[in-house]
Structure formats: C-alpha cells, structure tokens
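Hi! If you just cloned this repository, the fastest way to understand the data is to look at a raw example. We've pasted two of them here, unedited. The first protein comes first, obviously.
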Amino acid sequence: MPIQLPKRRPIELPAAGEPAWSAVAAIAETIARLLHPQAEVVLHDLATRQIAQIWNPFSARKPGEPSDLDDIDPELAEDDVIGPYEKASPKGARLKSISTILRNQARVPRYMLCINVDVSQFEAAARLLLGFAATSESRQDWMFRQDIREQINLQIADYLKRHNTSMTALDQAGRVALIAHLDACGAFQTRRAVDHIAAALDLSRTTVYQLLRQSRDSGARDSGARVAGAREVKPETKRKKRK
C-alpha cells in the first residue's frame, strides 16, 4: 500500500548559517517511510511555532497548524536530543517518542524533529508471546523426582537463565563453570549422570570428565564451595568376569 504523504509547500533557500530545511525534510521522510505505518514524524518550525511538515499523520494534524509547543522552551533544553518519552495517540494508544532540536550556527533553535512510534501492537504481541510461554500450573516434583535426565536438564536451564546466556554462547570457561554448577548440585553423584550431561552439552564423556577435573582443580563452583560428601567421579570401567 503506497504511503500517503502530504504535498510539500514551496521551500525557500535557508539563510547563511541556517539548517537546510530540505535536507531535514528528506531525513524525516526517510524515517517515516522506514517505520510506516507505526511512526508519525513531525517537523516543527520553532520560529513560527507551526508544523512545517508531517508524515504518516495518525494524529490528524496538518502542516501549518500550531505546534502547541508554548509550554516547551527549546532554549532551556540541556541536550539537543530529548527522550525517548511517553505520549498517547488520539485513540489512546501508547506512543514512544523522541525529539531533536536543530539549531543554526548561532545555536539558536530553528526546528524540532519529533518521531512518535505507536508501540501498542508491539505490546500486544509481547503479551501474546508471554501468555503462550507461561504455564498455568507449577511443576509437580513427584513426577520428576526419579527422572535423572530431567533433573539435569532443569539444573542446566537454571544456570543458563541466571547467567542470561545460552548453550551455544558458552566458551571454554563457561562450560567449566556450568560443569562446576552441576557438580555443586550433586548431579555427578548419580549413576549414568555423565552420559546424560555429555548428551545435553553435545560433548564426549572424556571432555565432560576433563571439564569436571578443571572445575575441581580451580575450585570454580557456582556456589563457591563443594557439596559436602561429594565423591570424586572416575571414568567407568568394565569389571573383569571371574573365570
């Protein structure tokens, strides 16, 4: 669907030292086209206190209307960029806005460029995703108490969540720290735990043992102390059959 943009009024060449109106308008139109239809872009003429141009006007304002900036004194602004700040559309939708004060060479404010982004649809999408990902009931521990694989998976998920990382983002030090966390949780005291951990981390059993040895040698435990009574894990060996 083509973007409906208001017709431009004739542009007079700026005086020496004045910001180029046409250049500012081109930048504003570029932003409006990129963020259409979620963003309204308004260029205010601070000399006339009127709207010089507006793109994607979902506020129903028009060029030439008062800017309604009487309560804002750009000369008092500490920074040329103001925001982001919150506004509301005529329909009550929440807007995330930001404004830029454009000054001439004498640092006198000449224009104010405002970008108003309707974030209501993003909020609706976030609520939808949050509702889909949420669970209505807590996990029943009795169902998984004997499921060693699930216990290890939950311990790994807890570590990744608390450290705001992912399995693919872990480097060597991160894998050592994760193994130390599992060791501190007592995961390695369980029979066949190494097989489950190696499969979960997509590592070989040998690599898991090497990481475990590194974590214990360096004392790199997530809790800062070894679990009392934790026994040293050694590679499993096949028992010789008696003849």
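Ok, and the second one:
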Amino acid sequence: MRVYILRLQGARNLAWAFEVISNAREVVSSTFEPGLRQVRFVAPPREADALAEKIYLDGGLIWCSRHDLAPASVSGRSKKGPANSAASHRGLEGGFPLPDSGRTSRLKPGQD
C-alpha cells in the first residue's frame, strides 16, 4: 500500500482532490484537512500514483509526499490482532502512521 500526502494551493484544488479521491474505489482510507489544504490517502501503489498524477495534472499541487507501507507491518498486525484495539483505532484517527524511511519529493508526471 502507498500513502500520499498532497498539499494544494487553494480551496478549489482541495475540492477537486476530494472529489477524485472520494470517488476512487481503490482508496482504502483518506483524510482531508481543509485548514492545511491537505489530503492524505492510502491505496495500492499503481492506483495511488495514478490518482496523485491526475490531481497534479489538474494544477494547484504545491507539495507531495509519498510513502510505501511495508506489507509485513500491515499483515503482521492483522494476523496477531492489536493488543488494544481501541488504542489502535485512535492512532489512525488523526492520520496515517508513516514509516521512518519514507521519501518526500515533488511529484512530476511519469516519475516514480
């Protein structure tokens, strides 16, 4: 799975990103932060990249961060089950846990 954090130039750009991401079936989780003009979403890598590129090509993207979630960290938790499911749920309410080794870069069409 891949996590994208997109910061957009204005409210119109954020509204467009909201529309694109909320209508995408492949997005498994998303949060919108209107005050920061920021959106975060999780989707399979290929689909996540396509969504981010679509939003970029529309214009107004001023910053982008992309992080891959390690499959072992996601599947390991689900197999073992969380020690405290309420605490695990609370940890996701404010955003997504990001790996320490994640990359941050400007998104350009056709680049990985």
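That's it. A detail worth noticing about the second one: The beta strands are 2-8, 29-33, 38-43, 61-68, 103-104.
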